[in-house]
Model the fold of this input.
Amino acid sequence: MPVAVYEFPLCEKVRNYLRLEQLFKQLDHAATFDNEFESLHFFDVFFTLLDLLERLDVRTDFIRDIDVHEKNLVHWSSHPNIDTGALEVALKKLHSLLSELKRTNKLGSNLKDDRFLSSIRQRFSIPGGATSFDLPHLFCWLKQSKDVRNADIAAWEKHLIIVRENITLLMQYLRERGRYAEVAATNGFYQGIVTDKVDLIRVRCSNSQGYFPVLSGNKYRYGIRFMQLVPDQGSAGGVKSDIKFEIACC
Done:
């Protein structure tokens, strides 16, 4: 049975982490473009990512989270059954990321000095603005060999490696905090109480019945309502039957 995982952040920090994570996934896909029209999506995603980094202070959040994880790992080092080899690798990775963050003032800021990117970025904020008559130099670049384009893309993305690595590791740690448990939504509704610090709720359910979960709540309690997808009506109606699904509080 095909399943889908829905993730619901309970704080603004995790919302931003998820946004960045999704943009990096889109960037990876868009970077493999084979024609000029697909390539425009790469720049759309890339500039959206830069806009988000300029608005947010994720560097501070990264440093705080890494510091917490580092202290937790040091605490676990005294456990008799701990895998010391894996612990040392994890600590080394955290130290490396933290050192790099402290050497960096503003994430992705170096890309502002790239003349090519700066010359086309503003046009991508205008609907239909990235045309061959508006940006002939961009379309000249699109006609270059794939090796040339890939080298430029790699050089641009290199400035964002530190962001990608932090997002990947911190989201991994966050997701590992929760374990899936099977529960049931009575008449399509499930209510839970947050007993520990929870920043992310993950719902794993069937993807073949045409329903999806919607979460509402706060740091103390939450509710999950399953809705039936009705595309032709432009809306969704609540599911009235009982639904078994899995939930993880992270």
User: Anything to note?
Assistant: The first helix runs from residue 12 to 30. DSSP finds eight helices and eight strands in the chain.
